[in-house]
Amino acid sequence: MPDAPGDPGAPRLFLASRNAGKVAEVQRLLAEHLPGVQVLGLADVAAYDEPVEDAPTFAGNALLKARAGVAATGLASIADDSGLCVDALNGMPGVLSARWSGLPKDDRRNNRLLLDQLHDVPDERRAAHFACAVAVATPEGRELVVEGRMPGRVVREERGEGGFGYDPLFVADEHAAAGPDGRGLTSAELPPGEKDRISHRGRALRELAPQLADLLRPR
Prior knowledge:
Elements: E1 12-15, H1 20-30, E2 38-40, H2 58-73, E3 77-86, H3 107-117, E4 127-137, E5 143-154, E6 170-172, H4 192-198, H5 200-216
Parallel strand pairs: 1-2, 1-3
Antiparallel strand pairs: 3-4, 4-5, 5-6
């Protein structure tokens, strides 16, 4: 089992991600049900061969990563697969969101490509939603999968310094008229707590958290 700082008696959970922002987000969202939980990311454990994310669905890719995490670390492992589904692009980038502009993965390049693809699409046809599947696998062989969704639209320029991925281009329906000019606040402009409240990942993790707490609670 990998070493980690913090309370040795606290539950430990491996998150199959290199994204420091995502690790912090998951830790924040789970803390209510698992006080003191230590969420470890890929940077905190020994390197292992990560699975190819070749499943056709978010749930399938999340399970692939969670199962590989358990095999590599011996810890209960959580993995998510999420992406932006744009109506005008027939639901794409979808499961290809992180590598939409090719490899290596690059958020800014992905955002520029998406803006180029939607350049001539009028505002009323820029509807989209973020989708997320979160999977948990345990060393005992138990598995859970939950899904969440956040509807909104793609705007015409990047705004905000927070978040990651397509957050600077996405305005959720709940914030479509927010901001001083009424043009809506992107996910990258929202305070972390508010983003957690409405996000696809936040909704999925809130559904998952009580079940996960039961799985990880000492017997």
